[in-house]
Design goal:
alpha/beta; 6-stranded mixed beta sheet; 33 strands
Amino acid sequence: MADEKDTVHYKGSEGGWGSLRGIAEILVKEVDRPAVLDTLRRQNKAGGFMCVSCAFTKPAHPHAFEFCENGAKATIWDLTSRRCTPAFFAKHTVSELRGWKDYDLEQTGRLTHPMRYDPASDKYVPCEWQEAFDAIGAELKAIDPGSAVFYSSGRASLETAYLYALFARLYGHNNLPDSSNMCHETTSVALKKLIGSSVGTSVLDDFRLCDAIFFFGQNPGTNSPRLLHPLQECVRRGAKIVTFNPVREKGLESFKNPQSPIEMLTPKATQISHLYLQVTAGGDIAAMMGMIKHVLAAEEKKWAEHKHHVLDVDFLQQHTQGFEEVKAKAEATSWDEIERESGLARADIEEAADVYINAHRTIAIYGMGLTQQVHGFQNLAMLVNLMLLKGNIGRDGTGISPMRGHSNVQGQRTVGISEKPDLVPLDTIAAQFGFEPPREEGMNTVKTCEKVLSGEVKAFIGLGGNFLRAIPEREKMEAAWTNLDLTVQIATKLNRSHLINGKVAYLLPCLSRTEEDIQASGPQKVTMEDTFSCIHGSVGKAKPASKHLLSEPAIVAGIARATLPPRPDVKWDEWVADYDLIRDLIETTYPDEFHDFNQRVFTPGGFYRGNSARERIWKTESGKAQFTVPWNKNAFGVDDAPGRWRLITMRSNDQFNTTIYGYSDRLRGIEGTRDVLLMNPEDIEAAGLKEGQVVGLASDAGDGVDRQVGGLAVTPFLLPRGCLGSYYPEMNPLIPLWYHDEESKTPAAKSVPVRIVA
């Protein structure tokens, strides 16, 4: 491995003065607006405003400043003084705006008026709300409901998501893809099958009890920085953190708490990871197999010598199925194969396994490094295997914990946003609203794209997000998108998806969560679910960016009223007038998780909706937690070949999903550009390239389709040999639509087969 001094890197720690400078640089643009400072003061506190950025929990006892650098950026992004008005659209054609960069589109500011696309002038023109609702309703009534798709990003509230899902089913389909299809759908599929719960089993209190934490493919420094506070506390009380990640992420190396004056005034930072192993992209299956192999060997040795167990044999006998098969597979797998496929040395894997062996309570945290792989399901199955060995699911201080990215992406699935009808209480909904919901499985993101390409999708409604920028096969998808009869985008700011339109197209601006939402019954509150399955209330206090904005529930209800015939049990006007009534509906549909919903909205730390696997109730086919024998040696989707590289797409700490806040990836030492190709220095030399040389990447998936991205400056970076890194979403055109996890259909963006075009 090359020395870090020969690569771009960040010399400081995560947090510290660098984080404060990052906040200060964006604050100075809007610091004269009292709403910004007031919202930050109230952010992630009971009775306050819940951040629209990551899904990390909101503690019952918050810090004075319970927001991170990225959370502050997201809040100020919402509360900007810039406005994207009809006058702006009058100056620019949509075709012209397609040439703008993502950052420049968003810097136009908050959308202020409902807009209709006018094909004759190629411009957006203002319209009235009812005009938009009536036109959208007419288009939806003219097509087969099964040819319409209702997409949602992870930002809408539980109340909005519930109404949106109800609207879809009243209309006649389960075509409810959401942003989880692109990131953690592998979690929903794998954990549901293996432990009977589609979400993680840990809660915040578990971090106060655990002895070890294992990270796989997750970057808290960029994606969930407030997690670094409990990680720092874990390390200080003696817990050990082991990280498996191809990329050395600063947040898992060292952290300096910017809320601690003592830490800020001293040079020393907290070392987070006890052991940091740069597994090759797609090599986690082998790495975990090596750990399991070593744990089993330690069990055999300890029992032979001391008649004590390393494994939790009582748990294995009472609560699991399939252990012997996995044991046999591990024993039959050679260390040569494990080292070759993981890119790690046996001694390092055994050292990591010893940490696991010596820990009484262990938490496993993972991110899209595991889920966004062709064999991502097997990644999670292997992680479940590892955790089951010592009974590390269903005890305090333990658990398997996916770190969800978007603020309410998990919650939307909880209240009905799902293309899978078996995950929704349709019988309850049928009785509740007096209709027969559709029972056919709907379209997820990949299926939506396939049917857009085939012409079977006629209408698309986007509740937030930047769908066309986030998906694979961007060029092909954008070309097919213009054949849709109807496209509707509900948004706060302009993005590229708003510039690729169907034959009839509307851009509908909504309130942000930061803003005051006044309806007929008075000010409203909304709710969301964090990654630990806790529900939190949120109240916006800022003045809306425009008097012409509507709330998301009001927009959903407006379209639904214009589309559907009246029903006595469906009271759109009443629900929009008082969101308490929507929460009553959620409670009726999901009584176990949401009992006394309105009374518990502002519970400090949120109220926990429960998790069967945490109680060791396994809602699986066998009634037990399931061990799984892997059927692949790595998670890569194609075989290795000469000249074929594994591309890892990544986000900078100056972006959130497709939202680009700026051009500073401070935590990797990259400034002023996103057009980079990160390579190990030894690979640069072996490939005959030079630092700064501009190259392109071409898809090498073996399907004969020409997919290329150019203009990338070769940049030395500390990556495993054979791996490349570059930014999402710019690299999405290189990902074939078919290149996804086999079980969940999650696009496999974390080891994309490419070749370098010099």
